[in-house]
Amino acid sequence: MRLSRDSRAILHAAAGLAAFVLWLAVTAGFRPLMAPDEGRYAGVAFEMLRSGDWLVPRLDGLPFFHKPPLFYWIGAAAMAVLGPSEWPARLPSILGAAVAALGLLLFLRRWADAASAKLSVLVLVTMPFFYVAAQFANLDMLVAGCISATVLLAAHASLSKAQGGAWRAALAGAFFFAALGVLAKGLIGMVLPGAVFLAWCVATRRTRALMAWPPGWALFLAIAGPWFVAMQMRYPAFFDYFVVTQHFRRFAASGFNNEHPFWFYLPVIAGLSLPWIGWLALARRGAREGRAPLSDVDWLMLIWGLCIVLFFSIPRSKLIGYVLPALPPLAYLIARAVPAAMKGPGPLSRPLGWTAALSGLLCLASIAFVGVYVVQPGHRLRLPAGVAVAPGDQVLMLDAYYYELPFNWALRQPVMVATDWTPAVVERRDDWRKELHDAARFEPERGSTLLVDTFRLHDALCVPRATWLIGPSNAVLAHPWLAQARLVAVSREAAVWRFAGSATRDRRCLDEPGAAAPQ
What is the pTM of this model? Predict the structure, then answer.
């Protein structure tokens, strides 16, 4: 039986998606979670699964509204099926990368040619920057996949409409992925692909009426709107914090972490795209020899890459993963830079084959390096065999918050965190203190029980149940009373002590040696 053209396209798409997921996921479970990002986002997804509250993202039991919930929904669902481990925690990023690669393949097969499509995707999935990010449990690759799909589907709809073909399904898909992008990381999921598409429309002199398509906006609001409305109704301060603070203030103001100069992303992209980026040098030779005018696809990729890099170069706070949406167009531009006259059997001629092989080895070597040499304190801090936190025990972190520990230890309840919570100390740095302090503002009563000022430590420790205290390994120098507890585990950076508990809240349970009866 002969398959129709549409059926063959579906089968090719399914096979391509399976191949991308297999390549991107094969080493995703080989290394522990990295702090703070992977521990934070995997921890929120784990807590969503553990608590059964799939509506409100929570960090240590407190509402965490830095980002919307799509990553946590996918991660928590994967953990529900596969169990809480590193692989399902990274599945949202793997899926985002697969969507970007598959979208690029299908778009270029239709609007460029099969050889360019295959080579562009080969470049993309063997680019170390893309490969490592696809196995990193934070929101950047998921939103990059949504942005890529939105741009490609919107451009496909525009090109199809210009040729008199079907375009509504593709445009509906663009609005669908834009809504997912907003649920993945906020307004940039809509603003960035919209800006790319509009700039491309202006550059190629094509109609922009597609942006005003009412059914698309209805679909967008139906998908993206309910969660935001629900959060605003439940927490009146949500809009000011999520939209004003986390979007506009963070974009425009200083005082946040990771401040870098305007040109920061140029060496980042060049260095993390080796060895493929070297092929762009061939484009200069082609320019000297003369080349054909830019096609609509060429313009789309150029504008797409430039918009992403320029947008994220403006704010002072910059993270490497922000520019991941620029990698699909970069892969196409690299593939286009390969001289058409290169001899050899198809796109995988010898020089390209060696480049692909070297790049693939760099991908695997990068994962191996990170897994061996970048191990977090919370991963090295393991309880001895036969020792576990009992269901009724409480856990307290002292002068630190180890994001990955609740996930690694599969804790059943949020931990208490003891430090100096005065506003002057909290506002000094954009770190775990500020994240937890901001989260506690949405539920002050619960926050007051979980965020403990150090002068109230005796109240937290002098209780009838056992307390596991986690802090820096040298914490005993600042808190001599820790000598009263049993040291359970220690690493170079952190340690675990156990207090057996006390029936009295008298300060002597900490001050007098032996009064806490460590066990």
Answer: 0.89
